[in-house]
Structures are given as structure tokens and as C-alpha cells.
Design brief:
Elements (H helix, E strand, L loop, with lengths): L10 E3 L14 H11 L5 E3 H7 L9 H6 L8 H12 L4 H12 L9 H4 L3 E2 L2 E2 L3 E5 L2 E4 L17 H4 L13 H8 L6 E4 L9 H8 L12 E6 L1 H4 L10 H13 L3 E6 L10 H12 L3 E8 L7 H14 L1 E8 L6 H4 L3 H13 L9 E6 L3 E11 L2 E11 L8 E5 L41
Parallel strand pairs: 6-7, 7-8, 8-9, 9-10, 10-11, 11-12
Antiparallel strand pairs: 1-2, 3-4, 5-6, 12-13, 13-14, 14-15
Bound molecules: pyridoxal-5'-phosphate (PLP) and iron/sulfur cluster.
Pyridoxal-5'-phosphate binds next to β5, β6 and β14.
Amino acid sequence: MLTTERPKLKATPGPRLSRLPHIQHLDADTRHEIDVVSAILPFKVNNYVLDELIDWDRAPDDPIYRLTFPHRDMLSPELFDGVAALLRSDLARPERTAEIARLRMQLNPHPGDQLQANVPQMDDEPVNGLQHKYRETVLVFPGQGQTCHSYCGYCFRWAQFIGIADLKQATPGPDPALGYLRNHREVSDVLFTGGDPMIMSTERLKEYVEPLLDWPYDHVRNLRFGTKALGYWPYRFTTDTDADELLRFIERLSDSGKQVAIMTHFSHPRELDTTAVRTAIRRLRDAGAILRAQAPIVRHVNDDAETWASMWRTMTHLGISPYYMFVERDTGASNYFELPLHNAYQVYRDALSSVSGLERTARGPVMSASPGKVIIDGIADVAGERVFCCRFLQARDPNWVGRPFFAAFDEQAVWFDDLRPAFGQNWFWDSNSNIDGHPAGTTQTACVI
Ligand SMILES: *Cc1c(COP(=O)(O)O)cnc(C)c1O
Ligand code: SF4
């Protein structure tokens, strides 16, 4: 238990994890794995995750441990051995760093072409730190919100955390975002994302959000915040020094008629179990926020129906609506976390069928792909061919939203790019797919969005 009245965030970065007292009872191989894998992928685990979430009697197989700690299988055996040899070698530091950087390139640090793909333009200049892909919703990546209280092993923003991605995917401050929003009256939703916007102080956050209360932004009805703070640091909403100020601010936003939607990210039902998270949820609801939940389905953490069913039941009970079950992207440790689409679909369906209608509000499995957000609605035999029944929940072209389409069934497919059109046809959007000069492929967006 964290016993102090005001717990202080203490985050341990990857290379120091193997020295934590918590893991001294794990065997020497496990500790060695931690050093090797964290030399190449970014990790960060804080005291709340260590002391309140991980069940150390079950580590290293505990799901929260698997979510947050390095594991040998996150790297291919060759890459693992390569990094291990490098750590043993007596290479000087600069050479070692260069060699590590070279090895990292094997992990697809920039999936798709996405960094620039959805960045909007204003006065013929890109507005960095914004994404505007779907008509109604603009994503804002505040420059000061590009980290998290702890990291998820499956995070597709890992390259950015480690400093090798193009960090221009962050606003220098609120002004460019505000300027763009003033000029786009079709936008009803602004989604602050990251990293985690709740890593910012309340004061910083206000600089971005408060201006939206003024009349030039009356078209913005919904203020969304994509955050995993409830899962990783619920004290952000309870005892942190500016927690009360944050809650009062949220109350002011809701009172002014804006809907404040906290887009939470829970990977496992245990994250909903602590006193701290329950207090935080209660306070957010009392301040007038609505809460929704989204997370990817990943192996070792939540790849079974009972985990999702139990998560959906508990959330709904606590006043959080299940929203999306995502499929994780093809970057970093994706081989370790990924599961075939047909398995993800089966888990979704089994979970759905064991909860009540009120708890069935999550849509999934969903992939954020280049043409749009694609849901797998089912697997069927049609005209002698086994197919995935798919549909756009969001699309670059609003006319595609809701349109069903069929992909050839593929047992091995784990991501949208693995799918091929069924019946020997083309994708119905293919003639349009180059509107922005981007072939179909992965788009990386924000935290599990
Ligand atoms: C998912 C997503 C959104 C939000 O979509 P909703 O279905 O409205 O939640 C907005 N922009 C991008 C780029 C997204 O990937
Ligand atoms: S998935 Fe989201 S919460 Fe997790 S590390 Fe990535 S940005 Fe942070």
C-alpha cells in the first residue's frame, strides 16, 4: 500500500528496472532479460503500478507485469542475442549507442507514413501537433503532454518516447491549434492526446482548453481527453497538488455546456480495483465529465473473454461506458502482443455474449488503418468463400462510414494490411484511396486511438 496521504510519483526507467527491490526474488535470467530488452525499447514503471497493481506472487506472468515490464520474447532471438552481446562487450559508450540505434531500426519505428499523413494545413503550412483525419474530430498533441505516468509495452509511440521519431508531432503551444479550430466550424470534437495530456499540470492544460470556452469556438461541443492516468496514476485526480483545481476546471467546462469526455484506457480489470482509482472516477463523474473506455486486445494481458467481460461489467458499474476494443499496431514489440484477427473477434464475441446489454457498448475489434477505422463485424461463409465482414466506423471520406465490405478470411492476418478483398474484387475505396496521396496502410495516431 502507498500509505502517504499524498503519494509522490516515482517513475523508474527501463535500464534501472532490474535494480528494483520488487524484482530481486525473480530469477537471474529474468533480470538479465529486463536489462537486454530495455536497452532497446523504452520502459517506465511508477510506484503506483509497482505497489498497487502488479501481483508480485504471479510475476513474471502477472498481466500488469506483462503490460509494463520488458520480456525476452519482445525481441526476436537474434536481436535479443545481438543486444545481449553488445551489453557484454567493452565497446565505448558512443559506439554502443550507435549500434543500439542501428538495431532498433529492425523494429519498424515509423509504421506507415503516418507522422505527416493527417497533419492539416493552414495558410499552406502544416499545423504541427494536430491531426485532422475525420471531419468532426481534431486531435491535439500538446508538446508538454508527450509522455505518460508509466509506459505500456505495446505502445506504438515508443519511437517518439525514445527520441528517434519526428518530434514535430507536438504543438509548441496552444496558439496554432486554436487558430486552426477557429477556422474549422465543421469540427465538433477536440481530442487532447499524447502521450498523456493529463501528465501536464492543470495550469498548462488550461492554456490549451480554457480559450475554447469563448464564442469563436461555439462549434466545439465535445472536449475529449485521451488518458491512461486513471490506470497508471489516479492520484492525478485525487491528491496531486493541482488535482482539486483540475476537477474544478472540468466542472466549469461542463457547466458552460461543453461535454467533457474522459477517454480512459484500461488494459485489465485490476486497474479498476484500487481505492485510488475508484475515488478518481467518482470525482470525475461528480465534476460532470462522462467517461468512456478503450484499449487494445493484446496477448499476455487481456486476450481472453472473461477478462474483457469482467472489465466491461466493472466499468459500467462504475459509470464508464466501454467504447472501443482496438487491435494493436505493427510496431515495436508487436509480435509479442499481437494475436490473429479471428481470435480477437472470437474474444470480443464471447465477452459480449456474457454481459448485459448495458455492458455491450464497446465496438471491436477495431483497426485504425489508413482509409479509416475498420471493425471486424463477423466471419461468414458467403458464396462459397470464407470472409471477414468489415465496416468503416470512421473514414477519410464520410461517405464510406457504415459501408460494409468483405475481406478474404485469413487465419494468420493480424492487421489490416494483411487483409485482401474477398471475391477477387478491389476495395471499394481503392479508386479514391489516393486522394491524399496515401496508399492504404497503417496510420499511427494517438494513444490507442
Ligand atoms: C479514432 C480516431 C478519432 C475519433 O473517432 P471516434 O470514432 O469519434 O471516437 C479521431 N481521429 C482519429 C485520427 C482517430 O483515429
Ligand atoms: S499506449 Fe498510451 S498510455 Fe500506454 S505508453 Fe503509449 S501513449 Fe502512454
